[in-house]
Design goal:
370 residues; 3-stranded antiparallel beta sheet; 13 helices
Length: 370
């Protein structure tokens, strides 16, 4: 853990890991080395870099408690979600408050195919709870699509409880805001999609998806491309899609992206997700404490089991702009959207960043007009 925490070398004040994770030193080193190998023109070098695709899939399978042939690499989380959602026939339950990767994809699939019907939920607080899902289910519901961690509030969905509520229906999970820092029950989900460019510190292009047995049985591989077939390049024939998760791919993966993803996953595996989760929870407590100290309302649930690395500040409407300005003036990087301020520390967020946050909130509080 000590070496893992020491690998965080972003500038003090970076509290925006839910938006983008600055690349780790090992990922940067791996990317540089593999870029040079791809410039050599040697077959052995090209094969070495290409081998990172299998490495990444095996590492992901270990973290997702899945078989490697259930895991496929994707350009992004959204690509994986599109493969899953376009394959649903029947009712798909989804909250209107979800990130657009879910809402837009669901509506586009319904408009394009006619085989999917979107069943919208409207949670008052944006949090998809088991109680809300139970009240929203109908006989036509075939799947639930949900974020593991809500991008606005930081609320952490209980996948185990959601599985109990929906029974034999499909559970499709957008896990990008929790993968690598939340020790979740991924086995409860039928589809898990995420990306390595946030908490994994692997950069963009490092998406992936896991399709369980129930998903492989029920989802149609509508967007399956030539790489979604078994065997060699399908020239002069058009074979059926693969029976494995490979069917839910379009083209060959980016080997450079896979090398970055594999390097990041090795770092996570060496420490363990549960240990990282504990560190992130500690940083979140620091943010809660600092916000409370200066009277800043917080939208994120306080119970440790109900949040991950995101702590969302909810100042009064007239205070949002001055608070955001104070944070920026003190070198704090956060996400400001719709009057909310999302603070997202990681395991390696140092005490210096928390002090900067406290200084910014103190200055704002002193100047606030009551």
């Amino acid at each position: 853990m000590e070496s893992f925490l020491a690998s965080f070398d972003a500038e003090p004040g970076y509290l925006d890991w839910a938006s983008f994770g600055p690349l780790s030193p090992s990922v940067r080193a791996e990317a540089g080395a593999d870029t040079e190998l791809l410039g050599s023109g040697r077959r052995s070098s090209l094969d070495l870099v290409g081998g990172h695709v299998a490495d990444a899939r095996e590492l992901l399978a270990g973290m997702l408690d899945a078989a490697p042939d259930q895991v496929v690499l994707q350009p992004s989380t959204t690509y994986g979600l599109m493969h899953a959602i376009y394959g649903v026939a029947g009712g798909l339950l989804v909250s209107r408050a979800e990130f657009p990767s879910l809402t837009v994809t669901a509506q586009r699939a319904a408009d394009a195919l006619g085989s999917l019907q979107v069943q919208w939920m409207d949670p008052e607080d944006g949090m998809v709870t088991p109680e809300l899902v139970r009240a929203s289910l109908t006989d036509d519901t075939r799947a639930l699509a949900v974020s593991l961690v809500d991008f606005r509030t930081g609320y952490r969905a209980d996948l185990t409880a959601l599985r109990d509520v929906i029974g034999d229906r499909l559970l499709i999970v957008d896990a990008i805001q929790g993968f690598g820092v939340v020790d979740a029950d991924y086995g409860a989900a039928d589809v898990v999609c995420a990306n390595g460019y946030k908490w994994l510190r692997a950069g963009r292009g490092t998406g992936f998806a896991r399709f369980g047995e129930r998903a492989l049985e029920r989802l149609a591989p509508v967007l399956s491309g030539f790489a979604g077939t078994d065997g060699d390049l399908p020239v002069d024939v058009v074979p059926l899609p693969s029976a494995s998760a490979r069917a839910f791919t379009v083209a060959w993966p980016d080997a450079l992206a896979a090398s970055r993803l594999a390097a990041a996953l090795r770092e996570i595996a060496e420490v363990g997700v549960s240990a990282i989760e504990g560190e992130v929870a500690g940083r979140a407590r620091d943010v809660f404490f600092t916000a409370d100290r200066y009277g800043i309302p917080v939208l994120t649930p306080r119970e440790p089991a109900q949040h991950a690395g995101i702590v969302t500040l909810a100042p009064a409407p007239q205070d949002a702009a001055p608070l955001a300005a104070s944070l920026a003036n003190h070198g704090i990087t956060v996400t400001v959207r719709s009057g909310l301020i999302r603070v997202a520390p990681h395991a390696g967020t140092g005490a210096d960043s928390i002090r900067l946050l406290g200084d910014a909130l103190a200055e704002f509080s002193a100047a606030r007009v009551w």
